[in-house]
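Hi V.,

Quick status before I head out on leave. The structure for the redesign project is tokenized and pasted below; the design run finished overnight.
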């Protein structure tokens, strides 16, 4: 029951996985009125800030993060609609209505994409795929230093395919099981996992929300993201090498229970890969939104779930003949696809609705144009994109990258890759800067903490700076 509670709580932000179209392009209508210096505009900014402060305090208030942003979105758009309703209807017409419908359409793609991704993650978890991997790692008998590197590298290479949050949770569970008597090891290993998962997600369109957003907007081609592989490795290795010398050299004693894959587990993985290929192919070759490919792949999972359900009786009878054990034979046979859908993190899905609508309203008011002019004209693209990464550690990379995409500044491919990199790995600077960090603070409560992570921030910052320098050097031709 405890593990189930953690999984449901910490799929939060899944972020973590899931390709989706999280860009609500700032509506560009000729009759838009600049409201940035008005009472209405300043009130909207205040409402958004208050809502986001409430979101950031979720750990202490236990108020679900979706509630304040949904309320803020409703208030902001109501204020906009009221203002425009008192203007010349012949000139402004349905300006606000068209703008909000545009944002809702963008959210619909995001919602369906996330829902499919969450359902696949829940299905793989229910089929014991993650549990089997965890048990295997525990039984290998690694030393503390070996486990530090094994969990780090697995987090780095699995997060581009799955997602940084799920990967971090899995590796953290291994670290807690093996090193439960060594708090220092758990703290450093968790920091390493967060950095590795965020770095691994930065070079894949499917690894992190920021990369998914940029890819689905069509700014950077699918294969071009892999040019960030080496900078991502640098981001992970620099702090890991330094932290390595603070890990105990002895070998922990562990014991773990067995775990077996449930029927159809391997085929679910195959369907997951097929679904990803659909999303890429539909977008790249058919010029359709990737969500169409994801929903098509979801239908395959539905058909497979129907097959498991219909053949359950025959499978049980076969196993009874083999093992003469009804209890063993029936274990894990049943399957209900809509049960997996219902277990999606609905608070996260609704949170994204609030973010999309809030930022969309600020865009209509003119604030994103104002921010774009300051960051990308006054500061310059490189400095602005580095700043985006730092802001991602303090605020969250989702609204920050969403705002950048809504600004849509004129930048080279190299600069778009830079902001993708910094927004993805910048969250590692603080434990609250990424979904993986927030999740691990909950899972390893008392052992992996905000201040424990903060102590290593200077070392992580070296990796952050190193990855930027590496990108500017090896991908210089793209600038």
């Amino acid at each position: 029951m405890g593990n189930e509670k953690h999984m449901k709580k910490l799929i939060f932000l899944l972020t973590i996985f899931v390709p989706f179209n999280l860009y609500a392009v700032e509506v560009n209508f000729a009759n838009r009125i600049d409201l940035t210096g008005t009472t209405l505009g300043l009130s909207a900014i205040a409402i958004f800030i208050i809502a986001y402060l409430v979101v950031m305090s979720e750990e202490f208030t236990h108020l679900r993060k979706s509630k304040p942003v949904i309320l803020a979105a409703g208030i902001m758009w109501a204020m906009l609609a009221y203002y425009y309703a008192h203007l010349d209807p012949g000139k402004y017409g349905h300006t606000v209505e068209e703008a909000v419908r545009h944002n809702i359409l963008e959210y619909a793609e995001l919602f369906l994409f996330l829902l499919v991704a969450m359902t696949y993650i829940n299905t793989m978890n229910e089929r014991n795929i993650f549990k089997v991997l965890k048990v295997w790692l525990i039984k290998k008998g690694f030393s503390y230093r070996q486990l530090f590197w094994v969990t780090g590298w697995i987090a780095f290479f699995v997060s581009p395919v799955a997602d940084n949050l799920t990967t971090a949770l899995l590796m953290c569970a291994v670290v807690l099981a093996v090193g439960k008597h060594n708090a220092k090891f758990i703290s450093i290993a968790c920091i390493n996992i967060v950095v590795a998962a965020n770095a691994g997600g930065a070079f894949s369109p499917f690894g992190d929300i920021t990369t998914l957003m940029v890819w689905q907007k069509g700014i950077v081609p699918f294969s071009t993201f892999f040019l960030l592989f080496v900078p991502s490795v640098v981001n992970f290795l620099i702090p890991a090498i330094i932290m390595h010398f603070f890990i105990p050299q002895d070998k922990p004693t562990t014991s773990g229970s067995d775990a077996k894959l449930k029927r159809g587990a391997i085929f679910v993985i195959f369907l997951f890969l097929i679904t990803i290929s659909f999303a890429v192919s539909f977008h790249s070759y058919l010029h359709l939104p990737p969500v169409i490919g994801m929903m098509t792949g979801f239908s395959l999972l539905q058909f497979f779930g129907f097959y498991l359900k219909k053949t359950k009786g025959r499978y049980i009878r076969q196993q009874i003949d083999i093992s003469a054990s009804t209890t063993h034979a029936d274990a894990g046979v049943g399957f209900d696809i809509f049960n997996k859908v219902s277990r999606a993190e609905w608070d996260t899905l609704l949170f994204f609705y609030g973010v999309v609508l809030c930022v969309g309203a600020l865009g209509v008011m003119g604030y994103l144009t104002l921010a774009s002019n300051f960051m990308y004209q006054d500061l310059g693209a490189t400095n602005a994109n580095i700043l985006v990464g730092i802001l991602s550690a303090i605020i969250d990379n989702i609204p920050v990258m969403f705002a950048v995409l809504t600004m849509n500044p004129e930048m080279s491919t190299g600069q778009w890759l830079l902001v993708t990199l910094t927004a993805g790995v910048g969250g590692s600077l603080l434990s609250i800067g990424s979904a993986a960090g927030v999740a691990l603070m909950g899972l390893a409560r008392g052992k992996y903490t905000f201040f424990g992570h903060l102590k290593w921030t200077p070392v992580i910052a070296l990796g952050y700076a190193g990855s930027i320098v590496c990108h500017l050097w090896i991908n210089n031709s793209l600038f």
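Above is the designed sequence. Residues 1-29, 324-332 have pLDDT under 50 and may be disordered.

G. will cover questions while I'm gone.

Best,
W.
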